[in-house]
Specification:
751 residues, alpha/beta, Arc Repressor Mutant, subunit A, 4 domains, 3-stranded antiparallel β-sheet
Length: 751
């Protein structure tokens, strides 16, 4: 379970446990020596080529990592060296706000100078230089994507993505608040600067839900993190406008928009696009480039998307290509050895994935490589690496894999997650149960039954909660999902999904989506489909899917693919339209990190549960209602006398009705108390009158049945209770129902 670093106590505990000099003494020592060297350099020294080369290329703040841009032309220019030397010695303003403004301006001015010498800005190197010049205000996390992730973890605001200087300044200021001012010695500064790195490496990296293409180690190095061939995306979808479309879309979602608003925007850019193509473009931005994300219907930028929009530098997206798309690394390394013809590249890619039987997908890959300035056409008609391509090819530290022909099944297209599996045994079960039972009427035994029943089988994680309407079945499922997510340090809104089942579901399409009959090239995705794909991509995290009122339709019909896959362990089939259709794979490995919880009401509006379903489910009944365990009696503002009368009345009503299972659940109790709470504010209405009305409206409508001795006895008890509490209107209604039962052998509230 990840710590909440936005809390001072938790971050302070982690910081106190880190000794940079023990974690990496060589790094701290070399950094301290380097800071001392930079601090001691006068103006004339700083103007020299030797000093600037050390400052930019031999900088001990961090490894070069993502910063491989060649800036030799800038360093060889005496004008640039003189300018940066003079600016670096100017004193900073006293106030924090003015100081941040000055440092950001200096950062931006360096970037402007760099544009004179190279078509790519050396952002990482610029940040390293700023850290060496101003160690009190910069950490050693010089890769902005990681700095932003660290900032989000430390400050808990996912929507705020400050500029590079503010981000660094905030991190160092937080350290000062928790640890006090740093000493002036080079060693103390070096240790303070490296602390955010070690916190990121040990407690932030991998804790967020965004796609990770880079990894950090405890030596201050950033490297690309390649996925195995089988987990990589099998190509990239072409979109009109390429890079320009990415930038336009990112600019439009600046403040968050609905998905339909983004589609309308894209439609205005491409009026001749079909609806399916517009939706595909959104999915490309979300699921292939990871520059946008969607939460509760609102589309916003990811951290990677924000950085790409700020810089327009492809370095923010290229790591995704290299580590998560099949064949990119093969092409760069091949072109690094010698120029290639298009035929040679196509043949290479078809060897990487023998499932590519045409040039369509290899052509799309090469198109994107050209779009991101990694590959170019030479004058002799051959393809070659650009300078940018050479820089990124140099960062491929692994041997690219070829896709095994045995892994060419359609299922491999969707999954691009990690190898981790869910360790449900690692959680604190006591804390989990306590979190679910807090402020609810659920017992610890009930919660433990649900937990054990869901996870006792290695793959068949399925429970059915059946019984009385309003007894808290859905609430229990939601509370459990929320508590389980918290145990893993995950956001519940992304890991708990409620699907309301509808009457008339005769096949799996409501769950997994379907081909649009009016636009046959468009696949209508369902929310549950996206939920399951997310689960398949993160197998080490738990996901809870709640099927509310699942027997409004026959589960063995609409839920059949899941029932089959969880039993056999085979892949979960989503559709039968080839390997992929409109970005949706035909199959995915069954996500065994998903638990399904179905809620079931048993009445004339629902269907029975077949043995096929029951054989795969852990079943729990919800008929017994213990009113004494209800935790919210006091929250409705009734005085003690009135509350005692209401509680006694409901208890007696429950006892009279539960033998025939005509009783009520927690929802009804809540509604009764809420009604009385509002009614008591009107002086003219007495408690007995209000109670009479609300019992009539919320309890009696469920009364129905055929002639039986038990029903007859239940009605007699009910009439007696109503008389005891002077509920005249309710008593008259029940007596009329009793007469109907005697006359016709049946009774029903609505007649």
């Amino acid at each position: 379970m990840h710590s909440d670093l936005s809390k001072d106590t938790e971050l302070k505990t982690i910081l106190d446990d880190i000794s940079p000099s023990e974690r990496n003494p060589d790094w701290v020592s070399s950094l301290a020596d380097f800071l001392e060297y930079v601090e001691g350099a006068d103006l004339e020294t700083r103007k020299t080529l030797e000093f600037q080369q050390k400052l930019w290329e031999e900088n001990a703040v961090s490894g070069v990592g993502m910063g491989t841009v060649n800036i030799s032309a800038a360093l060889e220019d005496p004008e640039f060296r003189s300018w940066i030397a003079e600016e670096s010695l100017k004193p900073l303003p006293e106030s924090s706000e003015a100081r941040i403004t000055r440092l950001q301006a200096f950062h931006d001015e360096i970037a402007a100078w760099m544009k004179k010498y190279t078509n790519r800005i050396a952002w990482v190197k610029i940040c390293r230089v700023m850290a060496a010049l101003y160690p009190r205000y910069f950490s050693t996390i010089t890769y902005d994507l990681m700095a932003q992730e660290c900032h989000r973890a430390w400050f808990g605001d996912s929507s705020r993505r400050p500029k590079v200087v503010t981000c660094q300044y905030d991190l160092m200021r937080r350290l000062e608040q928790l640890l006090g001012p740093v000493e002036c010695s080079p060693k103390a500064l070096a240790e303070r600067m490296t602390l955010p790195w070690f916190v990121y490496e040990g407690h932030v990296q991998g804790s967020h839900t965004e796609t990770v293409a880079e990894e950090a180690d405890d030596k201050g190095e950033v490297k690309l993190k390649p996925l195995p061939a089988i987990q990589r995306r099998k190509g990239l979808t072409s979109i009109r406008g390429g890079i320009a479309t990415l930038i336009k879309a990112l600019s439009f979602v600046e403040d968050g928009v609905r998905r339909d608003e983004l589609i309308d925007f894209l439609r205005s850019e491409f009026p001749d696009y079909r609806e399916s193509s517009l939706r595909t473009t959104v999915n490309v931005l979300k699921n292939e480039f990871y520059v946008i994300e969607e939460h509760e219907g609102i589309v916003t930028k990811t951290t990677r998307g924000q950085l790409y929009l700020d810089t327009k530098d492809p370095r923010e997206l290229i790591p995704i290509f290299l580590t998560r798309v099949l064949g990119i690394d093969h092409v760069l390394l091949a072109l690094g050895k010698e120029d290639q013809t298009s035929r040679q590249l196509y043949n290479l890619l078809r060897k990487v994935n023998s499932g590519w039987t045409s040039n369509f997908m290899p052509g799309s890959i090469i198109k994107w490589l050209k779009g991101f300035d990694l590959v170019q056409n030479s004058e002799n008609g051959l393809f070659s690496l650009t300078e940018t391509g050479k820089e990124w090819a140099a960062q491929i530290h692994w041997e690219p894999e070829f896709l095994d022909p045995e892994d060419l099944g359609e299922e491999s297209d969707a999954v691009d997650g990690d190898d981790a599996s869910l360790d449900i045994g690692s959680i604190d079960q006591g804390s989990l149960i306590k979190a679910v039972t807090a402020s609810t009427a659920f017992s610890a035994r009930l919660v433990s039954q649900l937990h054990f029943g869901l996870w006792s089988h290695e793959r068949r994680h399925f429970a059915i909660l059946a019984g009385l309407s309003g007894s808290g079945k859905t609430l229990l499922a939601q509370r459990y999902g929320q508590a389980l997510s918290e145990q893993f340090g995950l956001p519940a809104d992304k890991h708990v999904f409620v699907q309301a089942v509808q009457p008339g579901w005769y096949d799996p399409s409501p769950l997994f989506g379907h081909i649009n009959p009016l636009r046959p090239d468009n696949y209508v995705r369902s929310p549950l489909l996206d939920f399951l794909l997310q689960a398949a991509n993160t197998p080490g995290q738990p996901f809870i899917a709640i099927l509310d009122e699942m027997n409004l339709s026959h589960p063995e019909q609409y839920f059949a693919p899941v029932l089959s896959a969880m039993e056999t362990g085979e892949h979960l089939r989503l559709h039968n339209e080839g390997k992929t259709f409109d970005g949706v794979p035909s199959t995915i490995p069954f996500p065994s990190n998903v638990a399904f919880i179905g809620t079931v009401n048993m009445d004339e509006t629902t269907h029975g549960i077949s043995d096929k379903v029951l054989d795969r489910a852990f079943t729990m009944e919800f008929w017994d209602i213990n009113l004494q365990a209800y935790p919210n009696w006091q929250k409705f503002g009734l005085n003690e006398q009135d509350l005692a009368r209401v509680k006694s009345c409901l208890t007696d009503l429950l006892a009279a009705l539960e033998t025939e299972r005509l009783h009520f659940g927690w929802r009804t109790v809540e509604d009764v108390l809420s009604y009385l709470s509002l009614a008591q504010k009107t002086p003219d209405i007495e408690l007995s009158q209000a109670l009479d009305d609300v019992i009539y409206a919320r309890v009696l409508p469920k009364l129905r049945g055929s002639e039986s001795q038990r029903l007859h006895e239940s009605l007699l008890k009910l009439i007696s209770v109503l008389a005891d509490y002077d509920l005249k209107r309710c008593r008259a209604k029940v007596e009329s129902l009793k007469s109907d039962l005697a006359d016709t052998g049946m009774m029903r509230f609505w007649r």
